[in-house]
Design goal:
This protein has helices at 2-38, 51-68, 114-127; strands spanning 43-45, 73-77, 81-83, 87-89, 95-97, 101-103, 107-111, 131-133, 142-143, 160-164, 168-173. The protein is of the alpha+beta class. It has a domain at 41-69 and 131-176. The termini are far apart.
Length: 176
């Protein structure tokens, strides 16, 4: 009966460990998404451009980049991970090394051309006079109102970005 209990316990242990392994990676992935979501992304800026003009130019550049560098879906696999077996001892002090096992790597797809398409889009925007700028997230800032002519506000050392609905950003300045 003790042998059967050891076998049952080893099966339960392995299942728990696999669950913990997957949970650990899910938590890590969630943390990365949350941390990356805190920093504002680089944005395109051109003095004298209106937000609508910038969005239109960006859309044109993204479409031309998609035509020049189409989606190339590739199948990828994470490497497997070896989990060594546990050492199980009985009441008489006899210990047995259990066999280890492999957790297969996850299979996923990705677009192999994403980075190249982003470079083509950035090149297109630069040819239209825009620069890619990185500003910090505003802390308690109010949006800078657009001037009467509707152009993007001038940048200053205090410029920062305020998140807007739909994943967009607006240039702001710290509250006085």
């Amino acid at each position: 009966m003790a042998c059967a209990q050891r076998v049952v316990n080893s099966i339960v242990w392995r299942r728990d460990f696999r669950h913990n392994y997957r949970m650990k990676h899910a938590i890590t992935a969630t943390l990365l998404v949350v941390l990356c979501g805190c920093a504002p992304p680089p944005v395109f800026y051109r003095a004298g451009a209106t937000p609508a003009q910038m969005q239109s130019d960006l859309l044109r550049c993204e479409v031309s980049a998609l035509e020049a560098v189409p989606i190339a879906t590739v199948l990828r696999r994470d490497p497997p991970e070896y989990i060594p077996g546990a050492v199980v001892c009985d009441s008489s002090g006899t210990c047995v090394q259990q066999a280890g096992f492999y957790i297969p790597g996850a299979i996923f797809t990705e677009d192999a051309n994403t980075a190249l398409r982003a470079k083509v889009t950035q090149d297109c925007m630069e040819r239209r006079g825009y620069g890619l700028i990185a500003l910090p997230r505003c802390a308690g800032a109010a949006p800078v109102p657009l001037p009467a002519d509707g152009v993007l506000p001038a940048l200053s050392p205090q410029s920062c970005l305020i998140p807007q609905p739909g994943g967009k950003w607006q240039i702001g300045a710290p509250a006085p």
